């Protein structure tokens, strides 16, 4: 008995009307043109994360300084203090050549409450979640498995403000989620996070992955704008969701994306599945959705949206190779 979506219907027996054909659809139909010559899978990377190998004192440190060069004085950090807490090994290295077969990136969209895809999400070999999005009491909606959790600076601040955690029983390392930080400000937080949360696996994503990935994001943004879609100038930094998906593309054969539905005009469908917060920047959310639709139409990812639930249901469908040769090694 394969798990299936248990979708929530409205009283008239249908799904809530999602915007079905918008500028996003028009742009996504031009996916081949937008993605021409683009590869999201980085080649030649020794590591996706910072660790203390024999290159740390030279090449890696130069990359770190480049990534954090724009930070204000309060975010600066010293090399000695930073080096003391850097992990001595890269526990992800085995996945660079022998990738996970199926991965899920699980966003926080309120549309997840309609799909109730938790059992299907848990079928994936690896699951990445964002920030502090809860799973407990929402298992039927988002599942329980968490392999990676991509965290932003605000989560880092909140973690550092909490009381010191009690000592835990040792977890099985293969069952323990890996915390990933990537913003430049998080490099400043990192030593304190590592010292405080000694039982957790915490990495910084490597600038040698981040810098070209963000350059690629900006290139795709310019290509989309060249087709007539203009976005506010404030949308310059890569979205948190996009970085997580780009990370999974490095270590997964297939990437399914849940919880990144288009912003919905129906007030009953919340921005998040777990709270009543409103989006801070609707335009940024719309642009991220547009870009992901392009990647979906090009075959780099598979978006599992409420308008097309059946696409991501069955275990045998999860394991059909889908990523285009454009991202293959």
| Uncertain parts | 1-21
SSE string, helix = H, strand = E? Answer: HHHHHEHHEHEHEHEHHEHEH
Structural class: alpha/beta
**Major sheet strand order:** 5-4-3-2-1-6-7
CATH topology: sialyltransferase cstii, chain A
If helices are DSSP runs of H or I spanning 4 or more residues, what is the number of helices?
14
Can you name the CATH architecture?
Alpha-Beta Complex
Report the CATH superfamily: Glycosyl transferase family 29
Total number of strands: 7
Subcellular location: Golgi apparatus, Golgi stack membrane
Membrane topology: Single-pass type II membrane protein
Family: Belongs to the glycosyltransferase 29 family.
Catalytic activity: a beta-D-galactoside + CMP-N-acetyl-beta-neuraminate = an N-acetyl-alpha-neuraminyl-(2->6)-beta-D-galactosyl derivative + CMP + H(+)
Based on the model shown, name its key terms.
single chain; 329 residues; alpha/beta; sialyltransferase cstii, chain A; seven-stranded parallel beta sheet; 14 helices; 7 strands; disordered N terminus
């Amino acid at each position: 008995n394969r798990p299936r979506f248990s979708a929530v219907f409205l009283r008239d027996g249908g799904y809530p009307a999602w915007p079905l054909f918008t500028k996003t659809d028009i742009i996504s139909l031009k996916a081949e043109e937008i993605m021409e010559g683009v590869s999201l899978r980085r080649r030649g990377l020794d590591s996706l994360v910072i660790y203390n190998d024999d290159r740390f004192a030279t090449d890696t440190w130069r990359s770190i300084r480049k990534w954090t060069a724009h930070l204000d004085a309060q975010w600066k950090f010293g090399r000695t203090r930073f080096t003391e807490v850097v992990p001595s090994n890269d526990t992800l290295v085995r996945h660079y050549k022998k990738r996970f077969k199926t991965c899920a990136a699980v966003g926080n969209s309120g549309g997840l409450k309609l799909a109730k895809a938790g059992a299907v999400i848990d079928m994936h070999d690896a699951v990445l979640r964002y920030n502090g999005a809860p799973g407990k009491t929402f298992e039927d909606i988002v599942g329980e498995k968490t392999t990676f959790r991509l965290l932003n600076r605000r989560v880092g601040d909140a973690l550092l403000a909490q009381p010191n955690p009690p000592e835990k029983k040792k977890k099985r390392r293969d069952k323990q989620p890996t915390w990933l930080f990537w913003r430049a400000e998080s490099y400043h937080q990192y030593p304190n996070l590592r010292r405080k949360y000694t039982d957790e696996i915490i990495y910084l994503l490597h600038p040698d992955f981040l810098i070209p990935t963000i350059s690629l994001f900006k290139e795709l943004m310019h290509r989309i704008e060249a087709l007539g879609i203009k976005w506010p100038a404030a949308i310059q930094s890569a979205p948190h969701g996009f970085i997580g998906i780009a990370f999974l593309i490095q270590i997964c054969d297939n990437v399914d994306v849940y919880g990144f539905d288009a912003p919905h005009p129906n007030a009953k469908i919340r921005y998040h599945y777990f709270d009543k917060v409103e989006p801070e920047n609707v335009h940024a959310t719309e642009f991220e959705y547009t870009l992901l639709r392009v990647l979906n139409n090009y075959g780099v990812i598979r978006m599992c949206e409420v308008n097309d639930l059946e696409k991501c249901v069955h275990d045998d469908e999860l394991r059909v190779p889908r990523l285009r040769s454009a991202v293959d090694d």
